[in-house]
Amino acid sequence: MRPRQPSNIHRPTLRSFITITISLIVTVVLLCSICFFYIKTSRILQDNSRESITNQLDQINSLIMEQIDTIDSVIPLFMSNNLILDALEAPLSKGTQDDKRFLIERQMSYIYTSTPLSGRNFTNSIYILCDNNAVFHTYTSGTLEDVNSKIIEISKIVDTSQTGLMSFPLESDSGHIYFARNLYSSNTGRHLGIIVLNIDSAKFMKYCTKTINPEWFITLYNSDIEILSDSGRAAQSLDLKNLLTLPNTGITFQEQKLSGEPYYIAARKLDELNLISAVAAPKELMLQDLNATLKSYLLLLCVTILVALASAIIISRAVTKPISKMVFHINEISNGSQEALPPMKLYQEFDAWAEAFNDMLSKLDASYRENLQKQLLLKNAEIRTLQSQINPHFMFNVLNTIAWKAQMLDNEEIYQMVISLGELMRMDILSKNDSFITLEQEIEYVKLYIYLQQMRFEDKISSSIRIAPGLMQYKIPALSIQPLAENAIIHGLEPKKGKGRLEIQVLETDEHKMEVTVMDDGVGFQGTAKMESDTKSTHTHIGLKNLNKRLLLLFGEDAQLRIHSIPGRCTSVSFTIPITESE
Questions:
Q1: Sorting pLDDT into bands at 50, 70 and 90, what band is 244?
Q2: Which positions ≥6 away from 361 have C-beta within 8 Å?
Q3: What span, in angstroms and rounded, lies between the C-alpha atoms of 119 and 535?
Q4: Helix axes 542-555, 348-388, angle to 10 degrees
Q5: Cα separation of 454 and 442, whole Å?
Q6: CA-CA-CA-CA torsion sign (244, 245, 248, 249)
Q7: What's the rounded Cα separation, in Å, for the pair 292 and 283?
Q8: How far apart are CA 72 and CA 153, in angstroms?
Q9: CA-to-CA separations, 484 to 143, 235, 337, 577, in angstroms, rounded
Q10: Is the pLDDT of residue 484 over 80?
Q11: Which helix H or strand E contains 455, and what residues bound it?
């Protein structure tokens, strides 16, 4: 350690020098300019604020109506599908109802993915309620719904005499808005049913207001609906609705106090939807925009700048010289050309700072080396340990099934099962050598597993896999989807009486992340949870616990498993990880 410099030499402190000098200069400059500035600002900013907010309202209204038109325009695509049209016009026979329902709902999913709505990610689900009592439903996101109760509530609300697009909320689902349209036969004009789109109101508003200043807020409301761009502004929105007065036509611009703070408000009624849209901007924020007043006092500003500039040159030379010297030495240390800072003799603060910095460098270097080795060893050991664990229950069941079929049948099916099992075991061994594999490889592994389970249970289990375009070549942790499929089949579908369905979907979120969801309509369990690494649950499987711990180690808490289940109905397990092409 370098010896401490003697402290009896009296030198001025940097804080006192800068504080006194800058305070004197800034005080004189501000006193000359501030009076003139605020006289002109109050007159100009009012006009600028009105124009800015009303323009923003027009843009948002235009974008909202564009989304509504898009929602309305995709409905004919469903009516143009012969399979859906046949189901609307003629009732399904009881014997073919399940198979037909699966085909129709799959067609609904395909049609949705081909529309612009699928890229905007604010549609949750689509319902078709036929007059022949048939109901078809497809999910467009990973969020589960209580379908039966919503169908009953929708049927009570929708007016079958309306010919246009209808919008309404549900009492049981305040976070969503529903758009519905009555369906008629193109040949006879007979009413066939209703199509309903479930829209996530928060995502819808986020999409429509993505260009707005985050300090502003938007509200879209009527007597039944209220959608806010910022859920934290509910109190301000309530005051706005109570205080706002609207003309019969056009935009109104007002200044009101919301929750005790002054706001500029622009509002207009959207007659097509019977909704009122309003933009509110804090008055204080709008007054910060000084650009419109620069021309008014440009001459005075130039004079004050010249005075301040002359003083700033003197100050900057005195202040920046030791700082530049210190920055130079720090860069040398970062490049490895130097090991410590030399003494800084101009100001006391720099001397003390250089000593403390050198002390910190030596301690950090020793601590960093030690901790880095420990963390690398611990992380690698835990990841390898978790990847090496596998539940033999599935392998034994499959082998028993193959042995039974070998005794009872002479069929090519046996050969395919043996080949698939061998491939599955081969991929399992290879995955232990690689921490990350492509999504395509993981899906092939999952397909082999599902195939063998379907052979085991014969026609009891059906499955579907939906992957967003362009995701197949991205990397994910090895054996990250298969444990979810295994858990769904063993704990959800196997105990269920009758047929069951397994759905796997991989989507890209708005934050450029990969969201993996595995859903089943099995026996379910009580509760909804974000799984912790040490969770004790009879429903979960050791594979899920290991997967959850791996995700925590690799990506942090945001990646851990999320479990949502409705007892006796369904279960959904999902996780979200960053999209990456490497490990």
A1: confident
A2: 333, 339, 340
A3: 36
A4: 160
A5: 18
A6: negative
A7: 16
A8: 21
A9: 17, 42, 52, 15
A10: yes
A11: helix 439-457
Cβ count near 583 (within 10 Å) = 10
Provide the residue type at 436 as one letter: F
Residue whose pair of structure tokens reads 């949502």 in the numeric block: 564
Residues 6+ apart with CB under 8 A from 223: none
Cβ count near 124 (within 10 Å): 21
The values of phi and psi at residue 562, to 5°, are -120, 125
Residue showing tokens 């963390």: 375
Do 262 and 287 touch, CB atoms closer than 8 A?
no
208 in Cβ contact with 64 (< 8 Å): yes
8 Å CB contact between 341 and 326: yes
Nearest alpha-carbon partner for 285 in 258, 261, 306: 261
**Residue 549 in tokens:** 């711990």
Residues 6 or more apart whose CB falls under 8 angstroms from that of 83 comprise: 103, 104, 107
Please give the Cα distance from 106 to 102 (Å, whole number). Answer: 6
Q: Cα 485 vs. chain centroid, distance in angstroms? A: 24
Mean pLDDT of the chain: 79
Q: What is the mean pLDDT of residues 490-504?
A: 91
Cβ pair 164, 180 in contact under 8 A: no
Type of residue found at 290: L
What is d(CA 234, CA 227) in angstroms, rounded to the nearest whole number?
A: 10
Q: Do residues 554 and 383 make contact, with C-beta atoms less than 8 angstroms apart? A: yes
